Amino acid sequence: MKKLLLTLLFACTLTSCFNDPDDEFIEQCLTPTNIVLSNTTHESTSITWEDSNTSATYTIEYGISGFTLGLGETITTTDTTATLTGLEANTSYDIYIQSICSNNVSMLTNVTHFTTNEPLVVPQFVNNLSDMHIYTGNLEDLNPSTYTFEYELITPLFTDYAYKQRLIALPPGEAMQYVDNGLPTFPDNTVIAKTFYYFNDERDTSLGKKIMETRILIKQNGTWVTGNYKWNDAQTEATLDPNGSVVTYNYVDNTGQPKSVNYEIPANTDCFTCHSNNSIITPIGPKLRSMHFNNQLQSFVDQNLLTNITDVSNVTTLPDWQNDRDYTLMQRARAYFDVNCAHCHSPGGTCDTTSILDFTFERPFDETNIYLQRFTIQARTQNYANDYSMPLIGTTMIHTEGYNLIEAFVNSL
């Protein structure tokens, strides 16, 4: 009898335990999976994830990589997608996501890392060149931003033997448009930059360089505006300098000879002298016929940087006066004149009303007046004299190779 009572008591105890409402099963809140980031820009990114919970909301916590959980920015959403905005450019971030179910919460996801893109190029003049974001990394390395592209000219302008880096930054999603062999049409907020520098020793470029200036053209509301940035001695920054200056520099050329240059950084008014046509500022260098070599134009088309053209072979090519002897002496000399002189000596140019010369390459020779002015051309290029030698702006010495070409051409007429 005593054993029967104990058995009944034990059975009642088990029954009461299994019926305890505090011990009802609670379904686990599952952690989000398959987190994917997309459409990352310099200031935002989109996130999607998967979730197996029947019904849940989600908390996203994010911050600069290494932030302390609980101190980050948070977003709560009922969707399995979200967009983070207001982020800092070129910055690494961490993201955690947690599901919130009706009765409990999930574990946090493992950390997801991402880095925002570089800042966009700023299409306006600011005091420091670095704040335009044309370059990335150390400024003196001249590493172009991902929003810029470099271009070269088959026949470049002579500027006291300085080396040049040429960049164009188009607004995101925009392109240059083909018009003819000359300048393409550039969209508003295009930035064109040209940086001038010398190598300390041209025989060994690893010995460093001296950057003199960066000239900037910006298209704002259909109009081009100019500005010059002068680099500091430490080569860590360049500042807007509208007044111009002279920088003395000594270097060794590629033959081992010591050279000295009093490099002239032009004032902003000097920029207007060369870049003005019919009193309207315009770019000079990036004409399509000057960039049509080494597959450069086709590359622009392939990258959607140049539109409105299907066959780049329709664009003519300006002769390479220095390296391509397949062209005639006249063609080579006229290419040199076109690049170095025609921006002033052409219809609408600064010298249009003071000179009868027209140096544009396409002009028929009999209409250029080069023959009539051949001895004046020779006199103004064979020696350097301030306010007399040509070009009047941008050079402080004779271009030996260029003059040898001009002399041979004039003597052939």
From TrEMBL:
The Fibronectin type-III domain covers which part of the protein? 31-119
Q: List keywords of the entry alphabetically.
A: Signal
Q: Say yes or no: keyword Signal present.
A: yes
Check the record and name the SMART domains matching this protein.
FN3 (SM00060)
Tell me the InterPro entries matching this sequence: FN3_dom (IPR003961), FN3_sf (IPR036116), Ig-like_fold (IPR013783), Multihaem_cyt_sf (IPR036280)
Superkingdom of the source? Answer: Bacteria
The identity of this protein, by name, is: Fibronectin type III domain-containing protein
Q: Which Gene3D superfamilies match?
A: Immunoglobulins (2.60.40.10)
Q: What span is annotated as the signal peptide, if there is one?
A: 1-19
